[in-house]
């Protein structure tokens, strides 16, 4: 009989985790999960903003097929009646449960998180979610503000709690209800932090003394960055503390000390998240489900922390599109666990820094659109077929491919040790590529550059990431018929990862594009 699935998706989490080599962060519980998992160090979202990314990976279709580039349409009405990953599990006999932010709430999931199609019971949302953007942050003057940087005393918060704490409690309640149930479950848990505002229990600041917090390695706007590629971080400018700094639009910059505070609070929010993940996985142990449950951990996209003079998501850079991705599969990524043995004892970030390493690490470039077929295969369900060229009329198919074939990471090492291959074309074709895209309303940064509505999109930045390169073309886009004109290129970017890991030196104008461009269009 198949496995249960615990699917953990985090809002705006870039891979600042110990298991991804970050030396500053304290993330012992996620690192412990990684130590029993296959970890993908090159995983990318299909669009670096919440609703489009989530609808893409939950349906297994790319944004050009869901036709969602903003927040304002429901794919079943606007594009095609596509089955979702939880719906597929539900139709295959699973109880499917949603806790917290899994689908993006609102019209893009029909104001119901796609219930009843995707879920067996109505999704749970924490009651304190509605206070997220209220004035709950105490300023130096003792008054309350709606700040970006917002460490809080949880006892002073409405209901004495925070949304992610409530989501963990509900998820644990559901796990305990499921353990006596004979039916298999697919439980999706969506955590809010480190999404802005950076509102978390203030004690987590102790883990990150401000003097230890560096600026981004490249806190300037790169000289050769096309203006269309820049995201002017409009959302953080609307927070009271950022507004008070009165920085110029669109390039800023924010004062160095405030940059450090944002970075400090992002890290603190990640450690707070880590404790919630730790409590959840510890409860999976307690319920005796660790040996029969697949655990997936990922995020909807990343978040820029001052790199390229940018903040937030809304771009095609790795800092915005790259996500953590790991799979714990009992008996496959780890040895079978004997009944009662603990796999996930809770680790306190204030006392543990274990320096655990991933069970297996794959450097293969993968995409979130591949989650659906991958989880189907891991759970022993038929893998949904690949979509035809045009698939608006096809209810069940996927534009991703199962990445289970990359789970045996020992083979990867052997291939790397053998020499490259003589026939470069063949090599290039076999190399996995991740596609991302981002819409813009104009060639220069506008107040709506970060989140243009569909009708205002004029340019689409199509980006491809291989192990060696990040290549982006910004082309004319027609929102009335969802078409892009690749002959009308407004700007381009090319970064060579080996010499430019932070993507600061755009060499697009230095090279011939024939080969790469054909690859992008194929």
TrEMBL record:
Lysosomal enzyme involved in the degradation pathway of dermatan sulfate and heparan sulfate. It is an enzyme of class 3 (hydrolase). The gene is Ids. Its cofactor is Ca(2+). CDD domains: iduronate-2-sulfatase (cd16030). Its EC number is 3.1.6.13. It catalyses: Hydrolysis of the 2-sulfate groups of the L-iduronate 2-sulfate units of dermatan sulfate, heparan sulfate and heparin. This is Iduronate 2-sulfatase.
């Amino acid at each position: 009989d198949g496995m249960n699935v615990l699917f953990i998706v985090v809002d705006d989490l870039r891979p600042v985790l110990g298991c991804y080599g970050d030396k500053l962060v304290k993330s012992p519980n996620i690192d412990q999960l990684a130590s029993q998992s296959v970890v993908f160090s090159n995983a990318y979202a299909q669009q670096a903003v919440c609703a489009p990314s989530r609808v893409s990976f939950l349906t297994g279709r790319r944004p050009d097929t869901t036709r969602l580039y903003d927040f304002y349409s429901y794919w079943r009405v606007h594009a095609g009646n596509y089955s979702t990953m939880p719906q597929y599990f539900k139709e295959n006999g699973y109880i499917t449960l949603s806790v917290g932010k899994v689908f993006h709430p609102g019209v893009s999931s029909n104001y119901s998180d796609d219930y009843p199609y995707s879920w067996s019971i109505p999704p749970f949302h924490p009651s304190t979610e509605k206070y997220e953007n209220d004035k709950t942050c105490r300023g130096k003057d003792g008054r309350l503000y709606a700040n970006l940087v917002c460490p809080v005393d949880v006892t002073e918060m409405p209901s004495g709690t925070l949304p992610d704490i409530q989501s963990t409690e509900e998820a644990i309640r559901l796990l305990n209800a499921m353990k006596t149930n004979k039916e298999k479950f697919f439980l999706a848990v969506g955590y809010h932090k480190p999404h802005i505002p950076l509102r978390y229990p203030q004690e987590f600041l102790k883990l990150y003394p401000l003097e230890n917090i560096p600026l981004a390695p490249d806190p300037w706007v790169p000289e050769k960055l096309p203006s269309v590629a820049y995201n002017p971080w409009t959302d953080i400018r609307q927070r009271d503390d950022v507004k008070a700094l009165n920085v110029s639009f669109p390039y800023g910059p924010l004062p160095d000390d405030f940059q450090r505070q944002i970075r400090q609070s992002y890290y603190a929010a990640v450690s707070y998240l880590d404790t919630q993940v730790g409590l959840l996985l510890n409860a999976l142990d307690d319920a005796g489900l660790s040996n029969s449950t697949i655990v997936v951990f990922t995020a909807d996209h990343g978040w820029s922390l001052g790199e390229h003079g940018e903040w937030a998501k809304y771009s095609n850079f790795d800092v915005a599109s790259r996500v953590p991705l790991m799979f714990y599969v009992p008996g496959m990524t780890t040895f079978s666990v004997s009944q009662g043995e603990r796999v996930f004892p809770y680790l306190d970030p204030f006392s543990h820094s274990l320096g655990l390493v991933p069970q297996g690490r794959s450097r293969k470039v993968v995409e979130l659109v591949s989650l659906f077929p991958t989880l189907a295969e891991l759970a022993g369900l038929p893998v949904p077929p690949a979509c035809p060229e045009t698939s608006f009329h096809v209810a069940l198919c996927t534009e991703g491919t199962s990445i289970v074939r990359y789970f045996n990471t020992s083979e990867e090492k052997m291939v790397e040790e053998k020499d490259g291959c003589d026939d470069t074309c063949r090599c290039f074709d076999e190399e996995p590529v991740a596609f991302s895209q981002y819409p813009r309303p104009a060639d220069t940064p506008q107040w709506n550059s970060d989140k243009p509505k569909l009708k205002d999109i004029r340019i689409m930045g199509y980006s491809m990431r291989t192990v060696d390169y990040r290549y982006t073309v910004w082309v004319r886009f027609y929102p009335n018929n969802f078409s892009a004109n690749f002959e009308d290129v407004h700007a381009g970017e090319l970064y060579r990862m080996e010499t430019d890991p932070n993507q600061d030196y755009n060499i697009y104008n230095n090279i011939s594009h024939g080969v790469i461009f054909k690859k992008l269009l194929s």
